[in-house]
Amino acid sequence: MSEPLILRLVASSVSVANMAGRIIRDILKTGDLGIVEKGLNDLQTEADRNAQKCIVSSLMKAFPDVAIIGEETLDYSDVNPDWITMDQDADVLKHAGSIPDDLKNISAKDICIWVDPLDGTAEFTQGLLDHVTVLIGIAVKEKAVAGVIYQPYYNYQNGPQAELGRTIWGIVGLGAFGFEQVKPPAKERIITTTRSHMDGAVKGAIDACQPTKILRVGGAGHKVLLLIEGKAHAYLFASPGCKKWDTCAPEAVLHAMGGKLTDVNGNFYQYHSGVKLRNDGGTLATCLFEDHPWYLSKMPEAIRCTLKSK
Ligand SMILES: Nc1ncnc2c1ncn2[C@@H]1O[C@H](COP(=O)(O)OS(=O)(=O)O)[C@@H](OP(=O)(O)O)[C@H]1O
Ligand SMILES: [Mg+2]
Ligand SMILES: [Mg+2]
Ligand SMILES: [Mg+2]
């Protein structure tokens, strides 16, 4: 009998995220990023385009009845056949006996896959390579239930011989894998936030939490990696900048390991295929779910009102 659909989706997503990571690294090696300005402070490179072509074409072929939404608007008529993979990661498939009951019998029509082929594009163009992640989030009905975060330049500080890349994945109710879970330092309050889009509201919300340290880094995926590895206590971005493809995979991985991601009013985002793309309510994520209410209680009233999710 074949493995449960949720596991096959995650196993395919892990394999295709690894291939997308190789595509990203190959483009950087050419030295020509093919940068297009989609809008103000909003870049797209050949790596974003080709990585998404690889991910969406592969997943569409493997799961033709599932909705897939990617960040980039693309023409899929010229996809390189070498970028289409039907591989399924064997280590993921080993978990077939531990799937939580509510995910055992999901239906393809209830699934939406959210793809950010390259999260941290600005940082990629600036050489801040560890900020880059490939994000594939899987939602069943409105809930983010599984996610893959592939970090293509993990280890790059260790020199040219170092093996690059790592895969983190999780399923809510099963667990999260591919990293060492470390609790954040008890006597500190480290908050990670945007490096590129700081404004009065973002700063006001952070200041209200009286952090001992602020880590300004790129990418929703990278910021959630800082949480799950205990390098930050909270990810706070009191701005409607993130989209559903930024938060679906990170939210699922975080929830799978005991953290929590909501808007700044404490509401969960919804991820069914008809939902609004923009996360109007901002982002508050904590690596320990029990810390979440404290951060919510510190949100200034004016910011909570402005960022009411619509
Ligand atoms: N309109 C608007 N207002 C405020 N902030 C915005 C806006 N659009 C994008 N952003 C922030 O820009 C960062 C990069 O966006 P993306 O994650 O969409 O980019 S990408 O995946 O790298 O292409 C990301 O912030 P970082 O957290 O610094 O990565 C987004 O939250
Ligand atoms: Mg982008
Ligand atoms: Mg993104
Ligand atoms: Mg992107």
Which helices and strands, and how do they pair?
Elements: H1 5-30, E1 36-39, E2 42-44, H2 46-62, E3 67-70, H3 90-93, E4 111-119, H4 121-125, E5 133-140, E6 143-151, E7 166-171, E8 175-177, E9 190-193, H5 200-208, E10 213-216, H6 220-228, E11 234-237, H7 244-256, E12 260-262, E13 283-286, H8 292-298, H9 301-306
Parallel strand pairs: 3-4, 9-10, 9-11
Antiparallel strand pairs: 1-2, 4-5, 5-6, 6-7, 7-8, 11-13, 12-13
The chain binds 3'-phosphate-adenosine-5'-phosphate sulfate and magnesium ion (3 copies).
One magnesium ion binds next to strand 4.
What this model shows, in words?
- By secondary structure, the protein is an alpha+beta fold.
- It has 2 domains: 5-83 and 97-177, Fructose-1,6-Bisphosphatase, Chain A, domain 1, CATH 3.30.540; 190-306, 3-Layer(aba) Sandwich (D-Maltodextrin-Binding Protein, domain 2).
- Helix content is 31%, strand content 21%.
- The chain has helices at 5-30, 46-62, 90-93, 121-125, 200-208, 220-228, 244-256, 292-298, 301-306; strands spanning 36-39, 42-44, 67-70, 111-119, 133-140, 143-151, 166-171, 175-177, 190-193, 213-216, 234-237, 260-262, 283-286.
- Helix 1 packs antiparallel against helix 2 and helix 6 runs parallel beside helix 7 (244-256).
- One of its GO terms (molecular function) is 3'(2'),5'-bisphosphate nucleotidase activity.
